[in-house]
Design a protein that fits this description.
single chain, mainly alpha, Four Helix Bundle (Hemerythrin (Met), subunit A), 7 helices, 72% helix, globular
Length: 210
């Protein structure tokens, strides 16, 4: 459990709280946007370290996307409360995160196999992590802020679309995870005088590829 990638993921969660304090507690949108952008840009870093140094763990596979959900959810809520993000946009983004989070909890409660993160979901999250800081930085009347505001809108729409496409793609994977769980927990019926299926050789199992 105590690995460098997991510590990096935990650090991102702690710095998410710092972002919320900078934005809503100290009313420093520029500092908050810079921190949020840095956290979004380094989202891949803990995964890279895990793979490069062979520190991939089950805890890390859960902790990394959890850190993403916490960061994105906090950024959306904070941006809406601060007034830099429209409420309808925040509602659409937050609804998706709530559905994903609840689904993960339900699957975990049913002891289903873990569903791997899809690249399209990561792409959507990365786009949101660019657009949300841009919205915060563009909350002003300078010419460059108006241009940045337009860029934020150009990025956030496809990012949201990718996020919802990923949600739809997770549904069949979730069904397969539940099916695998039901098979894994299926009781073995022993018939008198027979050999248990688990003890049979591959040649003696019905349905095996020949």
């Amino acid at each position: 459990m105590v690995t460098v990638p997991n510590l990096l993921s935990m650090t991102r969660i702690v710095l998410t709280a710092v972002f919320a304090y900078l934005l809503l507690g100290m009313h420093e949108p520029v500092a908050a946007a810079i921190l949020l952008g840095a956290l979004g840009a380094t989202d891949w870093f803990d995964g890279f370290v895990a793979r490069h140094f062979h520190q991939v763990s089950l805890v890390g596979k859960v902790l990394d996307p959890t850190a993403d959900r916490i960061l994105l959810g906090t950024a959306v809520v904070g941006g809406v409360v601060y007034g830099a993000i429209p409420e309808w946009l925040g509602a659409i983004a937050l609804l998706r995160e709530v559905i994903v989070s609840l689904s993960v909890l339900v699957l975990a409660g049913l002891k289903a196999r873990r569903v791997d993160v899809l690249w399209v979901g990561k792409a959507g999250t990365f786009g949101m992590m660019f657009a949300l800081p841009a919205f915060l930085l563009s909350d002003g009347y300078a010419v460059w802020q108006q241009d940045l505001h337009q860029i934020a809108w150009i990025v956030v729409i496809p990012a949201l679309a990718l996020s919802w496409v990923a949600l739809g793609a997770y549904l069949p994977k979730a069904r397969k995870a539940l099916s695998a769980r039901s098979v894994d927990h299926e009781p073995v019926v022993h018939v008198a005088g027979s050999v248990p299926l688990a003890d049979m050789t591959p040649e003696g199992r019905e349905g095996d590829l020949r």
